From TrEMBL:
<dbReference type="GO" id="GO:0046677">
    <property type="term" value="P:response to antibiotic"/>
</dbReference>
<keyword id="KW-0813">Transport</keyword>
<keyword id="KW-1278">Translocase</keyword>
<dbReference type="Pfam" id="PF02687">
    <property type="entry name" value="FtsX"/>
</dbReference>
<dbReference type="InterPro" id="IPR050250">
    <property type="entry name" value="Macrolide_Exporter_MacB"/>
</dbReference>
<feature type="transmembrane region" description="Helical">
    <location>
        <begin position="626"/>
        <end position="648"/>
    </location>
</feature>
<dbReference type="InterPro" id="IPR027417">
    <property type="entry name" value="P-loop_NTPase"/>
</dbReference>
<dbReference type="GO" id="GO:0022857">
    <property type="term" value="F:transmembrane transporter activity"/>
</dbReference>
<keyword id="KW-0067">ATP-binding</keyword>
<dbReference type="GO" id="GO:0098796">
    <property type="term" value="C:membrane protein complex"/>
</dbReference>
<dbReference type="InterPro" id="IPR003838">
    <property type="entry name" value="ABC3_permease_C"/>
</dbReference>
<dbReference type="InterPro" id="IPR003439">
    <property type="entry name" value="ABC_transporter-like_ATP-bd"/>
</dbReference>
<feature type="transmembrane region" description="Helical">
    <location>
        <begin position="541"/>
        <end position="564"/>
    </location>
</feature>
<keyword id="KW-0812">Transmembrane</keyword>
<dbReference type="InterPro" id="IPR017911">
    <property type="entry name" value="MacB-like_ATP-bd"/>
</dbReference>
<dbReference type="InterPro" id="IPR017871">
    <property type="entry name" value="ABC_transporter-like_CS"/>
</dbReference>
<feature type="transmembrane region" description="Helical">
    <location>
        <begin position="296"/>
        <end position="316"/>
    </location>
</feature>
């Protein structure tokens, strides 16, 4: 606290000089020459002088908005030369209240929130703040205008708001720079009356004006000319010099005034903490809402980026899961098939033979192998008949096709060697031929193309309609009895070690090509196909992510652009905030919060949009699988974009000098 105890002198300037220029080759010009000035607590003092005499410069130094080039400034006995930027901000926040010629209200805040600004930086509770600002504004006759924006109010009303703001944290010292300069004379008189009442009530009022008539209303007039004090007149000794601050005299005088109760004790118990995140976000949201169309345009890049990341990842995941489930439905990844080439260029007569089967059997890592020659045929059992695929295959078929027996047994090697007339039924075929569940088909004879075959086994359901509705017979039996040809049709095999799959597939190709003298066949494997597909879709996903990434960067640049523009446009606002006590960290946090709010809002809209597009695609039959990870990733990217691209503009804003910012430079 800036208590002055029993000292009556509050402000003491000694040998203060201020020069401008001097850097970058311009000659230094001294505009204040050795100013000595003491101001007591509770004084009502006017600093008067012609335009260009140095009044504003002096006021900026008095209000700690600018530093003197040399000399000492003691406030309540403390030399402020040693103060850090944050301590100066604290002093402005706790001790000073500024009233400017141009009111300097923040255009995007309503009356009540403008008045609250100094208390925000002092860490006062939102409810306490708004109550206090309402009571101040009510006493200043603006109780009905709490939610009016500055541009909806007259000059006199705006000036009263700025006076309320000056009083928000106590306003021990009111610094008024040409407070009546922009007002008509009647309104100007009202404002002066208000300032006089504040002085009566115990505030130290420092009035800066070029108008002698205005100055005459002060209790002490200091005239400044060409940067020097040329006159210091004290017509009446202010009471406060005789009565140290904190005595009861102030309230005694104020009891009869229109501003009874305006003399307020400092409201804050300064925390020294920067404003809270919630406060920063709320304020960012208010600011962005005021220029919502522009904000929306800025959001667009982020929205598109986030939505595309989510849709692309969902579609990618959907298609790869669809492929995988197809794979699961159509068989084992262990299975490799060799089919004669049906490419017209190679001719179609190059069927595979049993010799080829033996050639392939010799290839390393081939675990089980069968010839595979399916042909249409007619099955008859008693009254029932059924036309379906007859698969001529070998004893290792169970392993190759990953089959399980429901009953009986599979084709054996002996069956093959003896060309036994035996048949294994798929579960579907069993139902067709033996609809009566109670009849055991094992051992029964059925006719295939008119020839009798004994049923030796029934397969478990495989889930694949075609497989379930076939029958399997030993290859030799079919070749001999049914097809009348030794053509192997195709070769199907199972590899042992999946890790060796690729080499095995290549080995099969090479061995067969060598044996046959031509590459007139194709080697297929589901895993290889899926892998190729996955590889293609991964590359596609990479490309699409790249596009999404680029749109996020473009969005980020949009955010940075808007923030830089915003800092430029709101330089004066930054100045006002600094004058009312914002720390550099507060300003930085405010602008960073705005960038983050923009990008998070963009992220949220993008999320909803992405899910919407995904839902539409789903309705259109495109396989879509939303992934929480993708959503978090996209959202995280949006947040990071705001932080990264908002950082620079926020820092630029925080580093502005208070005077320069106030001047809107
Ligand atoms: P007043 O408020 O009495 O009109 P100022 O304090 O604004 O006077 O200015 C005093 C002198 O200092 C003027 O000559 C003005 O041109 C000069 N001056 C004020 N600010 C700057 C600045 N930032 N850079 C250079 N000269 C300045």
């Amino acid at each position: 606290m800036w208590s002055i105890g029993m000292t009556t002198v509050l402000i003491e300037l000694a040998n203060i000089r201020k020069s401008y220029g001097g850097q970058d080759g311009t000659p230094a010009v001294e505009v204040l020459h050795s100013i000595d000035l003491s101001i007591g607590a509770g004084e009502f003092i006017a600093i008067v002088g012609a335009s260009g005499s140095g009044k504003s410069t002096l006021m900026h130094i008095l209000g700690c908005l600018d530093q003197p080039s040399s000399g000492s400034y003691r406030f309540a006995g403390k030399d402020i030369a040693a103060f850090s930027a944050d301590q100066l901000a604290q002093l402005r926040r706790e001790a000073f209240g500024f009233v400017f010629q141009g009111y300097h209200l923040i255009p995007t805040l309503d009356a009540s929130h403008n008045v609250q600004v100094p208390a925000v930086y002092a860490g006062v509770d939102a409810s306490v703040r708004s109550e206090r600002s309402a009571s101040l504004l009510t006493r200043l006759g603006l109780g009905e205008r709490l939610d009016y924006f500055p541009k909806q109010l007259s000059g006199g009303q705006q000036q009263r708001i700025s006076i309320a703001r000056a009083l928000m944290n106590g306003g021990q010292v009111i610094l008024a720079d040409e407070p009546t300069g922009a007002l008509d004379s009647a309104t100007g008189m009202e404002v002066m009356k208000l300032l006089s009442e504040l002085a009566e009530a115990g505030h130290t009022v420092i009035l800066i004006t070029h108008d002698l008539k205005v100055a005459a209303q002060a209790k002490r007039v200091v005239r400044i000319h060409d940067g020097r004090i040329v006159e210091d007149r004290i017509p009446v000794m202010p009471d406060s010099i005789r009565h140290p601050e904190g005595t009861s005299h102030g309230s005694a005088v104020a009891s009869s005034s229109a501003v009874t109760g305006l003399r307020v004790q400092p409201a804050m118990t300064d925390s020294g903490h920067a404003i809270g995140l919630a406060e920063a976000f709320a304020s960012a949201w208010r600011t962005l809402w005021v220029s919502r169309f522009r904000t929306l345009l800025t959001l667009l890049g982020i929205v598109i980026g986030v939505a595309s990341v989510i849709v692309l990842m969902a579609v990618g995941k959907g298609s790869s899961e669809a492929t995988l489930s197809n794979l699961a439905a159509f068989g084992s990844v262990h299975r490799v098939q060799v089919w004669p080439d049906t490419d017209p260029n190679h001719g179609q007569n190059a069927g595979l033979s049993l010799v080829d089967v033996e050639t392939v059997r010799e290839v390393a890592n081939v675990q089980a192998i069968v010839p595979f020659n399916p042909q249409q045929g007619l099955l008859v059992a008693g009254e029932q008949s059924f036309s379906t695929w007859i698969l001529a295959t070998g004893s290792e078929g169970m392993e190759v096709f990953n089959l399980r027996m429901q009953s009986g047994s599979y084709i054996t090697r002996e069956d093959e060697e003896q060309m036994a007339a035996v048949v294994v039924l798929g579960i579907g075929t069993r139902g067709r031929l033996f609809p009566d569940e109670s009849i055991n088909p094992l051992g029964q004879y059925i006719q295939i193309n008119g020839l009798p075959f004994r049923v030796i086994g029934v397969l478990q359901e495989t889930g694949d309609d075609e497989e379930d509705n076939t029958v399997m017979v030993p290859f030799a039996s079919a070749a001999h009895r049914l097809w009348g040809s030794q053509d192997a049709g195709a070769v199907q095999l199972r590899v042992g070690d999946l890790a060796q799959l690729d080499q095995t597939v290549i080995g099969i190709g090479n061995a067969l090509e060598l044996a046959r003298g031509a590459r007139d066949f194709r080697v297929f494997n589901d895993a290889v196909r899926v892998r190729a597909q996955n590889e293609a879709s991964r590359q596609q996903a990479l490309l699409l992510s790249l596009i999404a990434g680029i749109s996020l960067i473009v969005g980020g640049i949009g955010v940075m652009n808007i923030m830089l523009m915003s800092v430029k446009e709101r330089t004066r606002e930054i100045g006002i905030r600094m004058a009312t006590g914002a720390r550099q960290s507060d300003i930085q946090r405010q602008f960073l919060s705005e960038a983050v709010v923009v990008s998070l809002t963009g992220g949220a809209i993008g999320l909803v949009l992405g899910m919407g597009i995904g839902a539409v695609l789903m309705l259109l039959g495109v396989p879509v699988v939303f992934s929480v990870r993708a959503m978090l990733l996209a959202f995280g990217c949006a947040l990071a974009t705001g932080l990264v691209f908002g950082w620079m503009p926020a820092r630029a804003a925080a580093r502005l000098r208070p005077v320069a910012a106030l001047a809107g430079e």
